[in-house]
Design goal:
alpha+beta; 4-stranded antiparallel beta sheet; two-stranded antiparallel sheet; 6 strands; DUF5702; coiled coil
Amino acid sequence: MKKRGSVTVFIALIFVCIAALICALLESARTSSARLYLQTAGDSAIDSLFSRYHRAMWDNYRIFAFESENDENIGDLMCEYMKPYVKNCGMYRIQNPVVSLNKKISLNDNGGMYLEQEIIDYMKLGTFESVFDGSPDKLWKDIEDAKSMEKITSDYGLSSREAIDVEKALKRLSENIEAQEKIKLKMREALDNKNLGELKRLSDNLKKKLKKVPELVKKYEKKADKMSAKLREIEAKNASNLDKLSESNKAYIEGEIEKFKDYVDKDSERRLEVTALSSQSESMITQLDNLESDIDSLQSTLDEASEDDEGDYSSEIGEGWRRVSDDVYSLGEMKLSCKHGIADEDKEDKLKQLKEMISDGVFSLVIPSNRTVSNKSINTLSLPSNATTGGYTGRNLAERLLIDEYMGKYFADFTDDINTPLSYELEYILNGAGSDRANLESTVLKLLAIREGLNYMHIIRDQDKVQLVTQLAAAISGALCLPQITFIVKFLIIAVWALVESAIDIKGLLSGGKVPIIKSGEDWHTDLDSIFDILSSKDLGNSDDFKRGISYEGYLKMLLYIEDPVKRNFRMMDIMQLDIGVNQKDFLIKDMVYGLDANISCGAKRLFSEISLFSKEFSGLSSGYSMEVRVEKIY
């Protein structure tokens, strides 16, 4: 029987093709699985890397970040974490993984935006009670209104002192004129007593008074010119602040400004009368020269008559006395008929001294007696704030509030009294100075500006306080002054009263007390009689009765709410670096990694295509190939 092998050959060829197809499909599936395996290994490695978060950053500030000084270190660590996967890869046959970073995100990138995100993510997990009652933006509009009010009233308060200086200059001139009249009365008494020596002495005294008149007039003109220039300067300087005020406050301030302008107009009318006194004094000095000449002539005649008894000098002597008498009674009369002056200069001087004492020395006055100011300082050159980065994007209201509350929770202030590289951390975040003292001083001045404006608005809205101010202004200015000067003194009194109350508020805050944003009568601590006692005692008094309102920390959070976010973020990082650097000397915020984007590539070997039975079928393929996957993660 004849045998044929065609079917067998045909089936064998079919089997070879099918086997090759199956192996190709298996290799393709294995390759895809190997890529997935590599992706799993990479994801596990980056997760393991991110589990190395910096413990002190979390414990102290609830911030997740891992520390890495360079990119090579990150790659080495990820490769180390991938070793178990490489060792146990089985049929996936991956080897020699290499990590290359596409992007590394540090906490200080993009203006500290990633630090903010960490803060927001953490703060969302808890509950907090915001210092803001209602809309913070609305509250800050009221506070900005108060700050604008403070700037305007402070400037016009200084201008009121210029106006008072004008009145004082006029009063000195008026006192000179009154002294002249007293001398002239004595001259007539000396004439009646025929006392030529006394008459000549009095004439000389009167001449001295008259010679001072031009100088006093010039002083007045200088003060008046200074006041006018100051008012123009203040008006131009505060035009923008005036536009920021609410309608009610703007109307009040514009009314007060009109009184200042009215005063300047009235002073222009007085100036004509005052200026004329200089020429009048010169004319009267000439009259006194003639009087002294007639006195000398009469004295000579009297001397001759006493030496020569036979001489008949009676007619000459009579004529001499007549000329002297005519000279005395014909002396001009200097008058200052316009209203002028300040009645109680002592009280007005005390107002000025009080304002200067608090404005110039408020810092020493508000520090509680049981506390000393920290003298700690730092070198800011190596801090994150010296290398700020851009790319910052803003936050919505809720996120801004979360960041604000975080700062109050994790950073200390003056009232906490802690021992860290900088004891006043919130004050540093707000101001950025290199010493505790400088930061606290700047904070006190900012708080003073806010409280002064708010307290000023409280006074002008309280009719009882306005009445007290008006009474004191009337007593200081007096009944004979211009009515406008009473309004100007009133302006000064309110400014000083608000300043004193504000200083006491700040002392209460630094002592751990509370002060409401908008005060009621029950929250007010001073009266117009007691504020003058501060001049002698140099003490703002007891600061215990501050139970209602917002704490010092609350006021700092309000100030930080409107602080430039990039500056704020980097100053927070400054404090973090300083505090953690106490125990870890080489700690740097720039080494704190928040996120990574990396590529992982590795070599791999073929498996099914290398089976010896079919190896010839795949002889065109290399035995090895490379794979690459991308991994990314942020905290």
